[in-house]
Task: structure prediction
Amino acid sequence: MTRRSRSFFCGTVAALAGAAAVGCTHPGAFFAASRSEPPPIGPPAAAVAMPQVTERVLANGLTVLVAEYHELPIMRFSLLLPGGAAYDPAGREGVAELTADLLDQGTTRRGAEELAREVEFLGGRIGADAGTDFSTVTGEFLSKDFAAGLDLFSDVVLRPAFRADELRRMRRLRLADIISSRDNPAAVADGCYARWLYGGHPYGHLPQGTEASVRRLGDADVREFYARYYVPERAVLVVIGDASTAAMLAKVEDAFGGWKRGGMPLATPSAPARVSGRRILLVDKPDATQTHIRIGNVAIARTDPSYVAANVTSTILGGGFGSRLIDELRVKRSLTYGAWSGFVARKEPGDFRVGTFTKVETTGEALRVALDVLADFAARGATAAELARARSLLTGQFPKQLETPGAIAGKLAELAGYGLPRSDLEAYPARVAATSLADVAHLAQRWVPTVDAAIVVVGPAAVIAPQLAAFGEIERTTPAGCEGPQAPSAAGP
Amino acid sequence: MGLAAIAAGGVSPAAAHAAIDVPVEKTTLANGLTVLVHEDRRLPVVSLYIFFHAGSRNERPGITGISHLFEHMMFNGGAHTEGKFDEIIEGNGGSTNGYTTRDFTVYLESFPPPALERVLWLEADRMRALAITEKNLEQERGIVKEERRLRTDDDPDGTLYEQVYLTAYNASTYRWGPIGFMADIGAITLDEAKRYFRTYYAPNNATVVLAGAVSPREGFALVEKYFGDIAAQAPPEKVVNIEPPQNGPKLVEYHKAAELPAVAIAYKAVNARHPDRPALDVLQTILGYGQSSRLHRAVVRQKELASGVGVSFNWGIDPELFWFLAQAQPGKSARAVAQAIEAEVARLREHAPDARELRKAKNLLQADYVRGLTSISGKANQLGFYEVVFGDYREMFKEMERVEAVTADDVQRVARTYLVANERTTIELVPEKPQAGALPRPALPPSAAVPQTPGVMR
Result:
């Protein structure tokens, strides 16, 4: 969309808007144009204010980032720990998540119920979660409860009790989740896709683990994971809230200064291998009325210099409602309600993936259209209008990434966790704007899966298999069959 | 900690929200369009929320789902913007979406301030003259069917959500959900769509909320400029949703392919403006909010029967359901889960909560109120909600006082009044294992959304 001259923006409205400096060269055209022609774009808005961050590294190696936020009486704590599900030992998949889940099930000072009552009495929240590269613990309290909230938050991080009955109870809940997630075709598609693409690589399982691996998890597994990865020297604690920087730093030092270093070396996963050729996995879900599709291959790491340009590229293909996938699959053909693409960038190269779903009867058509869109995009890149839309969408929505204490804390922790400079935040809009058609063409050609692609199709095999015959050789499994060491893998063992 | 320690705990919980200023100005245009503006310049962002006072409660059998289908139609744009809506919004840095509930339909955009006038022009264009064509209708019909399959037909929780409303209500048009029945989605005609647009998409049936980097003066002037000449229409027919007494519990088994049993238990409660509603919110919090809630402690933690118990109580224009949704742990039955939930409900009917538990519930609700103000779009959404459902956005600012006024006796009283066996509906999901390689059964019955978000997104 070309930006029109501001000359339509005039008369009373301009005066009301305080846009006194705006010219009024076509006063006659103003009202005549107001119905059928888009009105002008106003003067540029101020840039979003960057959080003013103070960084301290405590004697035990913990990196502390603090920023004041005075819009609301809220305190947010966000702790990033250097091990996520990618660090689950082989055969013990799910231990990072089980460890995180057990943090708030009792500490050496408080039982699980007492802890929950205290947190919730303050109207607060504490949550812990394992991602792929990292584990995170977050807490949110009203700022008047800063001290009490930090005491609870640090208790959960530093002194989890890992009591045997809590472990047994939580393991049952994790198993129930794993079993019931087989009812969710999108979750099945994501889990099977991870395994199909990455095989036995640490990125080849979801944080939840598998039924078999979680059944094996015991006290020693959890304690070992905690000892190795819940250590200050590689952790990042972000505190954002309605308090002074000095007060936040002092209280954090009090609470976390005594955290002992771990000292164990951190194993790093190797780079995963790309899938060669078109490899199709059909997952039988006989009761489904819809088929879920994933297409992807290994692509870039989070630290790749092309990360921002890659996101612009992906937005053209599958971001927002004006994307090419939405246009072809949803708007033109009503084949789906949703279609998207994205770079799942990690410490080691993650993947670029595309997802959609359609009624079982149109599985073949939807896969054909999706593959055609990918092939065309990889071969020809984008148009100037497509690039302009993606750039505007990403820069226009950027301020919302810094809107809430939770969003700010998450961004700061992510950058620190991947060893990226905080200046990346401020540089983001300019990097989006600097992404050229040539950049997009290059990245699309390089990373959009065409000839080499891991494809997962989840739905009733009896209906779908004939529709897939034209796409090549097909391997078959079931939702439960995607779990465990015998699971089919396009990547090899 | 005893009560004295709580009272001495410094700032009272109520003080945290009382200090938060959410300035709003309101006007009504000559054509009846209500306009709210909340100025907040912390970010270079403006949020626009347009509420149309029409949702699935305004529908009838045969055209269920038309409000939501219509919401989709709106993104095809108006007379001057047909097929260009998303391109113009996103090309100017905005994001856009919509959602439909039982009570209303909302269109939302969030965009950089320079795009304000252009976004208002776009919205006015589709309110004035939506492109309602056979092609657009067929396109969205197919998409909405996919949405229904995703959220309802292929999702056990979505199915239970649909079934519990269908079974609990006899008269209320709340009985079907915003997604509508598959057959109705397939049958809605172009004429129905055009009639729906004329009836409900009139300025006198809409509320515009602007929040963010926009002043009331600028917002009012621009809304007048673009919407001021859209003609008012005769007000829509009133909906009467008065449910006859049930006079006996209902128990339904619902068979569906699923890994684990689950159960939904519903009681008929009150509407958002009813004086008992805040006490029911506190009751909901005591029963189901967090790991210290009664149901989590009893049913998930101590008895290990369910993997989670959710309690849902939406604020509706009409009386809503107060209902529970729980999935059984492997090896446990839906019946055992239901009995354990019922035991906790009975305990609250018999004994009022103690002061500390009441205080905890109020603190949770008050902290949630503060969290609800962290985003500009969230504030726009809430202001519009109160204006539409309560008839006045200022009701939002009285909410925490209403919560504060709830007593332990109130909580017990509403439990005794509403959570009674004769008004109870229980749906047990009976899992069936499909045979691998078997052909799927034809599409299951109707409708849709996650219990916590009482609407369907675009």
Observations:
- The CA atoms of residues 94 and 111 of chain B lie 4 Å apart.
